Amino acid sequence: MSALLPLEEALARVLAGAEPVADVQELPLLEALGRVLTRDIVSGIAVPGGDNSAMDGYALRAADAAHPLPVSQRIPAGSVGVQLQPGTAARIFTGAEIPPGADAVVMQENCVFENGVLSISGEVRCGQHIRPRGQDIDVGETVLSAGRVLRPQDLGLLASVGCARVAVYRPLRVAVLSTGDELREPGSGELRSGQLYNSNRYTLAGLLQSLNLEFIDGGIVADDPDATGGALLAAAQRADVVITSGGVSVGEEDHVKNQVERLGSLDLWKLAIKPGKPLAYGRIGDTPFIGLPGNPSSVFVTFCLVARPLLLKMQGVSERQPPGIRARAAFSVGKPGGRQDYLRVTLENTGSGIQARKFSNQSSGVLSSVSHSNALAIVPPGTVVAEGDEVEVLLLDLLTH
Ligand code: AMP
Ligand code: MG
């Protein structure tokens, strides 16, 4: 039996040959959510553009605050004041620019305006309640870098520097083939004995859509060499990457391996992870190919750990590894394993920290273990875990975005 390949090694090999898609699109900001910047965005302006008030109140010289002050002008947000004469105050509203000559803002709750003069209670510091020019962004500052996946707040940040359109990569086209004679599509009638509904197609379509990648549906492929070869070739012609599920073991009904070898090149690995031992990587012609295992939980885990980083790299994304966090195991692992285990767990805030509760059945065929969990707890090979030990966990929400 060939040695088990550590995940890091498999990942390094998969990523080595991956290049970002070449095509660039110019999109209006409102259409750019989830898309990936192809170049740095540098601000041509300062934000805010001038010193402005953080409060509704009065702008004045801090040195004048002890005296009753006439109010000489009124500055709502969006209008510009005039030079403030010493010994006077300006009525000012949140976001309005500080008039020249003023060096502090007093919030209106600390002011009394009576008989035409303003009296101020409490101490007034120079600079208080003033948001300085460039507090958020400076002229010439890189606002967001190439490779950034645009989140809602990023769209806002780009708008704040006046950016109306962005250059992003076109979505990566990813073909998904589900291999297996036993598979039926939900909605295509009742199952005969020995059959099961194709769940991998839906898990993978969802994962791709969550990552803002284009899902190309290759449907179910029969366990037959010609059907497999034909489907792989057609998929490779339409897509930037081809992903299959099932058929990568070395059984007689597993044809993916031979067909990829015939059409391109293939590495077949036994990964040192659980779930998800068999994994194939190669090319069909020039098109990268990943053969995931068939078992539904393995599909999810190997997609997240191996396919996702490849796809994100090809999509031009710079941050591809979500940070792990630490949690206390609410379970134990008594027997050290030979592979790195990715246990499906639910994280709960117990008041005494974050606790990871293990799903009862960790079999690679049990997809409920993924659906009813929100994280993967990593148990390295050769380790035992006692209840209360710290373990590293990966949040599913970070892996699926
Ligand atoms: P295989 O690697 O093709 O032998 O598949 C391993 C296991 O995963 C078998 O029990 C298959 O029935 C199951 N399986 C394969 N493909 C799918 C799929 N698309 N949906 C659900 N289960 C699958
Ligand atoms: Mg099969």
Can you tell me about this structure?
The chain is of the alpha/beta class. It has 8 helices and 26 strands. The chain has a 6-stranded mixed beta sheet, with no helix packed on it. A hairpin with a 2-residue loop joins strand 20 and strand 21 (287-292). It starts with 6 loop residues before the first helix and ends with a helix. Adenosine monophosphate (AMP) is lined by residues 178, 180, 182-183, 196, 198-201, 245-247, 249, 293-296.
Total of helices: 8
Spatial order of the strands forming the largest sheet: 7-4-6-5-9-8
Specify Rg, calculated over alpha carbons: 30 Å
Derived from helix and strand composition plus strand pairing, the structural class reads alpha/beta
Bound ligands: adenosine monophosphate, magnesium ion
Q: Which runs of at least 5 residues are low in confidence (pLDDT < 50)?
A: none
Oligomer: single chain
**What is the molecular shape?**
elongated
Annotation, overall tally of beta strands: 26
Beta-strand residue fraction: 25-35%
Q: The biggest beta sheet, please?
A: 6 strands, mixed
Mean pLDDT metric = 96
The termini sit apart by 36 Å
User: How helix-rich are the residues, as a percent range?
Assistant: 10-25%
